Amino acid sequence: MLSRLAESYYWIGRYVERAEATSRLLAEHYHLTVEDRSVSDDEAAAVVLDALSLPYDVVSTPTELVRALLGDTTNPSTVIGAVSSARENARSVRDAISGDVFEALNGAHLTLTRGLMTTASPAASMYRVLERLMVVNGAVEWTMPRDEGHAFLSLGRALERIDMTARLLDVRHDLGWPETGPVATLRSAAAYSPFLRTGETPSGERVREFLVLDPTFPRSMLQSARSAETACRTVQQFGGDDDDLLREVGLMRARLEFASGTHNAHVVDQLAAEAQESAIAAGSAVAEAYFRQAGTIVWSH
Amino acid sequence: MPSQDAASGPAVAPVPAASPGSGTGAVAYDEMRDATGAPRAGLDTVDSVLTTLGHDGLVERAKLRDAYLDRQGITFSVSGRERPLPLDLVPRVVGAAEWDRVELGIKQRIRALELFLADVYGPGEILEEGVVPRRLITTSRHYHRAAFGLVPPNGVRIHVAGIDLIRDEHGEFRVLEDNLRCPSGVSYVLENRRTLAHVLPEVFAGHQVRSVAEYPERLLDALRAAGPSDVADPTVAILTPGVHNSAHFEHAFLARRMGAELVEGRDLFCRDDRLYMRTVRGPRPIHVLYRRIDDEYLDPVHFVPDSLLGVPGLLNAARAGNVAIANAVGNGVADDKAVYPYVPRMIDYYLGETPILPNVTTYDLSDVDQREHVLANLGRMVVKPVDGSGGYGLVIGTAATEKQLASVRDDILADPRGWIAQPIVELSTCPTLVESGLEPRHVDLRPFAVNDGTDIYVLPGGLTRVALPKGSLVVNSSQGGGSKDTWVLDEGARASAAEREDEVPLVTRVRRSAVARHHAPAGAEDRLRQQEGQQQQAGPPALPRAAEVS
Lengths: 301, 550
Hints:
The complex is a heterodimer. By secondary structure, chain A is an all-alpha fold. Chain A has one domain. Chain A is built from 14 helices and no strands. In chain A, helix 5 packs antiparallel against helix 6 (122-143) and helix 11 (204-213) packs parallel to helix 14 (265-291). Chain B is α+β, with helices and mostly antiparallel strands. Chain B has one domain. Chain B is built from 16 helices and 22 strands. Chain B has helices at residues 44-72, 96-120, 125-128, 134-138, 186-199, 215-225, 248-258, 295-298, 314-319, 343-351, 368-376, 402-414, 493-499, 506-509, 522-538, 546-549, and strands at 75-78, 81-84, 87-94, 160-167, 173-179, 236-239, 261-263, 268-271, 274-279, 282-285, 288-291, 324-326, 363-364, 381-385, 395-396, 419-423, 429-434, 437-446, 448-451, 456-458, 463-467, 481-488. In chain B, helix 1 packs across helix 5 (186-199) and helix 2 packs across helix 10 (343-351). Chain B starts with 43 loop residues before the first helix and ends with a helix.
């Protein structure tokens, strides 16, 4: 497989995940600030933007926050930016991906850019985008052959998911909105119903532990690390050679899997921070191993 | 089948007036504006948002709302058809001080009703002393001898109550009826809040509305507290009649929010006075059963023998103290419409207190003097069958024909225990979006209360039901009723937000994301894209014209 193709698959996975997580966070955070006004508007905007590494000094109203997070095509850390970047990458591998995947991505892109967004109800608009993104993921799982391309896409998705979960935890809904915040965090990760099935009460501490360490919830950091490891091994099965990448991902998975003292809030937060750093290191390792091999170039005359 | 559904339940407003002024001549209390026409406290934002949006804006939001409710599948069934519960866009607001009184009144009422139930299923002192006539109890269809002497582990019989309130012409809240069996509608309270915040976020600006989200948690705590005393970690299950029940959405909703198992009769069995559910790993014990089916169907050993909805042997298991049934069997005797007029006396008898929330004047027609008075004034009365629900069988004096009145008179004389009568009360109104725009419509209020044995929690607000047809008296969903998001304003919240000003801002308290984001290498790609684009515009590069040169 061409390095360029592999890289595009990887970034489709990452950007779709980023768009999805950001949309959900936007919808639920907005909803939270409407229902629970215990934090001032500008501070409520600042915590989210800061967690997403976006500039936060210029935003002070909920509507401005919606605009900032929707963003534009120039910043791939915003919803519109991530979707259009995913679509750009899909365009460059359009011959190789299924029509369904491209159409679904294109649909999400058009929903966002053709003025279908309404600031009257940002949450309603975000759910429309989320529906399109779920179709993208459905098409990926149903129509893509389980080849290297799929493995790179899955790897990108898993690493981005870890990063986004860490950022979601950085918003600290539980500190700003002690009563309704923990549920908002869960909803932002589509984790509310799965959490409730455990029969526990959503407290800030338990919610953080769930999102980092739950062994069955597919968006927990532990499950994402396992997915990343599986994807790395699949790439190796196709002849990939990436000891650094597999080591990084495998260690991250093991740290989460065999963590002790996990009922301690500090330990959980430490694990989340380490996992995020690992995901970043893994991102660099995958680029080095597969997308930009330098090696020695020998010129023959 | 369940008679206390918000959707198909018995709440019927004894109000015939189509518009203020008709009927009794009294003017309905306006929930939105005071006598001068100014918005009431807390409603100024709501009022200005509604004005700004205008009719077209509201219609647009109504479409958003319908799409949202449809997508979420927030429905109730009427005659087997699933429909979204009509949610009106204009919230109903109750002030903090007013609410405090309502809350105290409901707690007081439930404490008295608990004592009453313990009494009539035990020593029967209140009957001995004649405070409540014994004949009312012995003739009540909901008094179950099978429950006599059955004392629940923590003494609680009314785990969940829905007390229906109306506001009279003077703005005073009055109790219209008690629902102590399977009051439903609480899921709509939670979903209404979420839906309104979703489609009309701007009305919330500047208010702190007391949260309703903790209800499932409080309910779960109360149910667990009701469990057998020798079980440290009781298992709670919700018993539903099945997906065809009108309130199935609510049963599933509560099960999901509480993380409790939702079971049907066929999932359960009793052995050795213990209740079990069938699981893939064999029988698992259940310690607390929050049943959402009627007493009559609960246990074929004691009640309807061919019931497929219940569990044979359940009552014996409860009597053995191995399972708690919530709400308790036989609660219906305390919310019998003919017993309702005696609740104020119960409050006095058991608690030595004056009722905080008054009743609506109600005549017990099995009492000769009261019956004579009612029959002489039938044209000014609302007459209800004690077992009626959903507004069926109700006759309103001012709206009835001579023939109807004559037939009601015959019915009452034939079965005085089967009917009650109330003078007409003008129900309060609230602006409601109908086809022609915002118009006043009559509303009631059903607050929900949860009793865990040590404390009674009253959900702030409750379900406001609104009679949508013009002039309608019946706030019932099966008769064209809708609902409203109901706010209780939290006036302490502003102060606490202000106190927090001194604290370190939230954004500096959290771990700053010093972590840079990864992006696809954009620089190189942009250059590439630029070059590719240029090529497309310029067409295929021209051939070198070397030959010409040479």
